[in-house]
Write a structure and sequence with these properties.
single chain, alpha/beta, Rossmann fold, 2 domains, 12 helices, globular, disordered C terminus
Length: 241
C-alpha cells in the first residue's frame, strides 16, 4: 500500500486529491497539511512513501519544506512530488534542486496523477515529456563560470559517465542510452547509479538539472536529441535507478 501525505493550503484541493486517492486500491492518505511546516512535521511523525507538495503555501513554502525533508537523514525513502498551477513556474526548478522527484501541474488528468504517484513512490524520477526539459532549459542559463565544486564533481566522472549524464539531461531513457552507446540497459542503469553517488544526486531529476548547470547540456543542444517517447500529457518515468 502506497502511503500518501497531501500538502496544500487550499482545503478544497486537498479534499479533491484525497477523494481521488481513496479510489485507488493500492493507495491511502495518511495525513494532510495546510502549510509547509505542517508537511515537515507530518513527514517526521507519520510513516509515508510519498508527499504530494504544493509549491506555494504559507508559513513555509513547498520548496523550503522539500529542502528540510530531503536533508533529514531519518527520511531517506520519502519521495516528494510537487504540484504547481503552471508548468512554466520557475519555482519548479528550485523544488527539483531541493530534492523533489518530479512535478505535475494541478490540471493533470486524475488517472495520470495516480500513475505519477506510483512512479515516484517506486523510487523513479518523474520526467514529464517536454515540460521538465523545456522549463529547465529556459531557466538554467549556460554557466559563465561553473558553481563552486561543480568542476571537481564533473571531473570525477569518467568519460563514459559524462556521456551518459549528458544523455540523461537531454531526456533519453535507459533503453535509448543503451541503444546509442552499445551498452546493455543493466550497464546503463549501473552507470546512472554510480553517477548519482558521485554527484550526490537524490534522483534522476537532479541529474537533469546538473547536466544544464554544469554546461554539459545547453538549451540549444537539448532539442537536438530525441526525447522520451510517450503520449503527450501523460506522466513518464525516468528508468529506475
Amino acid at each position: 500500500m502506497i502511503r500518501v501525505i497531501l500538502a496544500d493550503d487550499q482545503t478544497l484541493v486537498r479534499s479533491a486529491f484525497a477523494v481521488l486517492i481513496r479510489t485507488a486500491p493500492d493507495m491511502e492518505v495518511v495525513g494532510e497539511a495546510g502549510d509547509g511546516r505542517e508537511a515537515v512535521e507530518l513527514a517526521r511523525s507519520v510513516p509515508a512513501d510519498i508527499l504530494v507538495m504544493d509549491i506555494r503555501m504559507p508559513v513555509l513554502d513547498g520548496i523550503a519544506a522539500t529542502r528540510q525533508i530531503t536533508a533529514d537523514a531519518t527520511l531517506p525513502d520519502l519521495k516528494i512530488l510537487v504540484l504547481t498551477t503552471y508548468d512554466t513556474d520557475e519555482h519548479v526548478v528550485d523544488a527539483l534542486r531541493a530534492g523533489a522527484s518530479g512535478f505535475l501541474v494541478k490540471d493533470t488528468l486524475p488517472a495520470d496523477l495516480l500513475a505519477a504517484m506510483r512512479v515516484v513512490a517506486a523510487g523513479e524520477a518523474l520526467l514529464a515529456p517536454g515540460p521538465t526539459r523545456r522549463l529547465i532549459a529556459r531557466i538554467v542559463d549556460p554557466p559563465t563560470a561553473e558553481p563552486a565544486g561543480s568542476a571537481e564533481l564533473i571531473a570525477a566522472l569518467s568519460e563514459r559517465e559524462r556521456g551518459v549524464l549528458t544523455m540523461v539531461a537531454r531526456g533519453r531513457n535507459n533503453a535509448e542510452i543503451a541503444e546509442a552507446t552499445g551498452l546493455s540497459p543493466l550497464t546503463v542503469k549501473t552507470h546512472i547509479s554510480r553517477i548519482m553517488r558521485k554527484l550526490g544526486a537524490r534522483d534522476r531529476a537532479q541529474l537533469v538539472i546538473t547536466g544544464y548547470e554544469s554546461g554539459l547540456v545547453t538549451a540549444g543542444s537539448a532539442g537536438s536529441e530525441p526525447g522520451p517517447r510517450s503520449r503527450h500529457g501523460s506522466p513518464e518515468a525516468g528508468d529506475s535507478r
